[in-house]
Design brief:
Length: 489
Amino acid sequence: MEPLIIYNTLTRQKEKFNPINPPFVGMYVCGPTVYSDVHLGNCRTFISFDLIYRYLLHAGYKVRYVRNITDAGHLEGDRDEGEDKFAKKAKLEQVEPMEIVQKYTVGFHEVLSLFNALPPSIEPTATGHISEQIEMTKKIIDQGYAYETNGTVYFDVEKYCKKNNYGVLSNRNLDDLLNNTRELGGQDEKRGRLDFALWIKAKPEHIMRWPSPWGWGFPGWHIECSAMSMKYLGETFDIHGGGMDLIATHHTNEVAQSVACNHKEPVKYWMHTNMLTVNGVRMSKSAGNGFLPGELFTGDHPLLERGYPPMVVRFFMLQTHYRSTLDFSNEALQASEKGFERLMNAVKLLDNLKPSEHSSFNLSDIKTKCYQAMNDDFNSPVLIAHLFDGVRLINSINDGGTVTISSADLGELKKLYHDFLFGVLGLKQESSFQNNDELATNLMNAVLAIRKEVRAKKDFTTSDLIRDELKKINIIIKDTKDGVVWEKE
């Protein structure tokens, strides 16, 4: 099998994947901040890394997949300012902050379950690792890269930059970063404009707070991922992932914290998913074009013509490479729905194919192409295209065409489609699709029985009418040597 190639945000090029301790792979993905419903941008990221996780397992690696839950210390914006989002939500709903955490954590898991995403190996929470974050902050202070002011501890970015490249991940230099950051106000406790909080002093009204060497407070947003990834994956590990919106601030600060603490790069391969758009416009609340997964499933949104099953949405997402922009539209979703059904129908056909003595089906070619696609930076759209090429051959065999397949190759073909469709891509038959498929089969059997009867009476006008009317709703019937078959176009 050809080597696995991964695009590395850190070096901005594709690199051969060489785990630090093969076959073990350490992978950390920034999880959700659980004060609201998970949005589609999160889902796209987690589905993309579910694909990556599944393929690494398929390729024989032992993967420790860590995905955190942010349930403390997340302020409004990336500047360590504003009201705590958990406390704000708790006040609005008149509940304890951890009730908010529990509610939205459960909702997050339910959504990912609908998308058939595998659970991570470990799912640590920020509130469960306060001591690790405090210890890491103390070590960064000891190394001379952080300072305490009135109970808040800040990371000294400009001091760090004297020996290290703070913008290594975002490919921006210090002057550019400073020019795009506002001047400090007279009351600002920070020494430098780019300094960020490792530990934040809690105001009297702040609900979620913990004791520390600097007084009662709570962790900054960035320190949690550095502390938890180091605990479960070591000072340097293989893959760190998240959305591309995390590069400039969160992941840049993660790198700085970890290098300052341990004097080594924390991650070998940084991987990032691209943004979502709707009809070509970036998805956002302010643009009024954002919708939640539940709205996508039910169709209860002004921009949606109808709802789409979770597996159709997952398949739709996987038809675009994780590093490319994904554009939502009703037309694209409906096209994906047809494609998804074609693949599921092909899998059903595999169980009914009659093998021949010899194969004219080039199984080795399609198998090689499937692996080449996934080894090229997990290129799921190319993989899917090759699977569709195989569907045409499967249909040809089923229709009694010139393509033949031996019993041994048929067994291998079934395994190939099972491994890639259900194992790697993580698809499964939708229950609604299965029920509709059963109903459609029963109805079509009745229609074809009527057509067979009128043909026996040489009433070809009615027979052709049935065929033509079915074609209008994208159902094609074919007369073969083994009888009449039908399929969705």
